[in-house]
Write a structure and sequence with these properties.
Length: 232
């Protein structure tokens, strides 16, 4: 979510119960927006990693047939909330955009995917993300509005997570953050597997992504298949 000042203001909280989190949002007056979608996110950086080192990110996100290019500036932590510049624009031709980025000297740096369900209430946006490293709730909007909703959802500022998904993943894993061979079908909801099995899928030898074929494919992805819709 971007405010009038092109700022992203959000908090991230780890959750243990997807259904319970959705129910809490509804009790608090949030309404579900659309259906669960499968996000594919490709981060780009220069070979020397200058964007990452500066705390910035350049992301190409694809959801179904829609692609958005986003620049995220260096984050600041204000009252436990992440605040950063965010600029984004829709991309009509993702393949050409990827070529432009490569010609400008950038290269694919990290790929991550997740299943996202969006809720809204007034000027607040809440999302529930099912990711390969766990489930999370994000609230985006103005600080006062976020602070007013957090207690009603059963959380406090002590539950806020400052790291991005990329930072959380790289604490314990190498490669790209993917669900595993073949990915998932967002129409089926989160895959039913144990946390232990999930960790086995994520762990890979140093320098090798859990699914090298997927990483190669996502650098220049093919058109989405019919019936199938990845900072911080």
């Amino acid at each position: 979510m971007v405010t009038a000042n092109d700022r992203e203001i959000e908090v991230k909280i780890a959750i243990r119960d997807l259904a319970g989190a959705a129910a809490a949002l509804r009790r608090a007056g949030f309404e579900k927006v659309g259906r669960c979608v499968h996000e594919r996110n490709q981060l780009y950086d220069f070979p020397d990693g200058r964007l990452r080192k500066a705390g910035c990110a350049l992301r190409l996100r694809t959801v179904g047939k829609e692609t958005v290019l986003t620049f995220k500036g260096k984050k600041k932590i204000v009252a436990g909330m992440k605040v950063r510049e965010e600029l984004e624009t829709g991309i009509a031709d993702p393949r050409t955009m990827m070529l432009i980025l490569r010609r400008a000297g950038l290269e694919p740096a990290f790929f991550y995917e997740k299943l996202r369900t969006t809720f809204a209430k007034s000027r607040l946006t809440a999302v529930i993300d099912h990711t390969p490293i766990g489930d999370f709730l994000e609230l985006e909007g103005e600080p006062a509005a976020i602070d007013a909703e957090i207690p009603a959802l059963g959380y406090s500022r002590r539950d806020f997570i400052k790291e991005s998904y990329v930072e959380l993943f790289r604490k314990a894993h190498t490669g790209d953050m993917v669900f595993g061979e073949g990915g998932v079908d967002p129409r089926e909801g989160p895959p039913a597997r144990s946390k232990k099995a999930q960790r086995r899928r994520l762990t890979a030898p140093a320098g090798r992504p859990p699914n090298p074929a997927l990483r190669t494919r996502t650098q220049v992805p093919p058109p989405p298949r019919s019936g199938r819709p990845k900072n911080g």
